[in-house]
């Protein structure tokens, strides 16, 4: 085996080669390490950025979720309905014939009520007895009007012919009042003596004074009736003793309104008594005067037992202003029965007006609810009632209000009940308090929060 020996130069070159290779390898390892470190640093930077973004996003979400607006609680409620009473049962007179007109209640009874509201019996002409004297007064005042309720008018002096009327009507069994020869009286007082005690001798004397004769008076009366469209009324003399003085219930309602509109007549027929020189003390034949708001007008009785009353009244039914009534009953059995039927009629009308409770304070009418489970009641804050007539329908309407806060006592609306011309409103409020949601609910229910 041959052994090769290297020279020192060869060994030195080889050592240099190895050293250079090592230097190269060392250099290459350093570059690789730097590259690896750079990649690691870049990766760590990306991770840090991602983590920072995630943390920032989480922080933003938490901040938004904890402060995002909430949708308003849902308020669910309805107005309780109120039931009207049954129809009013109006007690009209069952004897003879009658008619009633009511002013001031059109909103309850309808516009027709101020004409002829209700009737009973037939509308045929019937004897009106001393109600005639009211027509006589209207005809006289149409020709010789008084200027206001207290105007005395001209003076009337009674002569022997007038005085003789006292005996004439005494024999006929009529109501009379003293009329001394040569005595005098104002037109106003003469009309009062004719109307208050229903003195027949004064009815003839004053009508003759006004027109010159009874024939002229009857002619004037017919013209007056025609001018006012009172075709169902006949007047043949001024007192009503003649049964041919007739009228219908509907005509008498119109006559009663004309009389009530005349200041002098309206004041006279409302007087319960009167004292004058000559006739002395006199008392109104209308026994209902001053009872239950009756303010006039005239009674009428015939010897055959026919009793009648033409009346006006101011009837308080609890509906604000009293009702202005004009009514008539013809051919009743007696004064007492006529008066009783009128008062019974008034009572039945009053009963037709009634107060209906529509709601009680604290009544539960609904609820408030939120998505996060907080709830409260919706209640009526006050009790309320409404005045109605007969079976008038009661309607309920609601108005909703959005409160600032949903706390106990916060008003969320109102209910208004209406019946005819009347209405009443009450507030509706929360009972209990809507509490806000927890932070956890906000964080776990993003879909139920407002937009960020």
Q: What would you note in describing this structure?
A:
The chain is α+β, with helices and mostly antiparallel strands. It has 3 domains: 1-70; 74-85 and 357-448, no CATH class; 97-332, Beta-lactamase (3-Layer(aba) Sandwich), CATH 3.40.710. Helix content is 37%, strand content 24%. The chain is built from 11 helices and 19 strands. Helix 5 crosses helix 9 and helix 6 (200-211) packs across helix 7. It is rod-shaped.
Layout of secondary structure:
Blueprint: H1 8-67, E1 74-77, E2 97-103, H2 106-109, E3 118-120, E4 126-127, H3 132-143, E5 155-157, H4 160-171, E6 184-186, H5 187-195, H6 200-211, H7 214-227, E7 246-247, H8 249-261, H9 263-269, E8 273-276, E9 280-283, E10 294-301, E11 307-315, E12 323-332, H10 335-352, E13 353-359, E14 364-369, E15 375-380, E16 384-389, E17 395-400, E18 411-419, E19 422-431, H11 439-444
Antiparallel strand pairs: 1-14, 2-3, 2-12, 4-7, 5-6, 8-9, 10-11, 11-12, 13-16, 14-15, 15-19, 17-18, 18-19
Helix pairs in contact: 3-6, 3-7, 4-6, 5-6, 5-9, 6-7
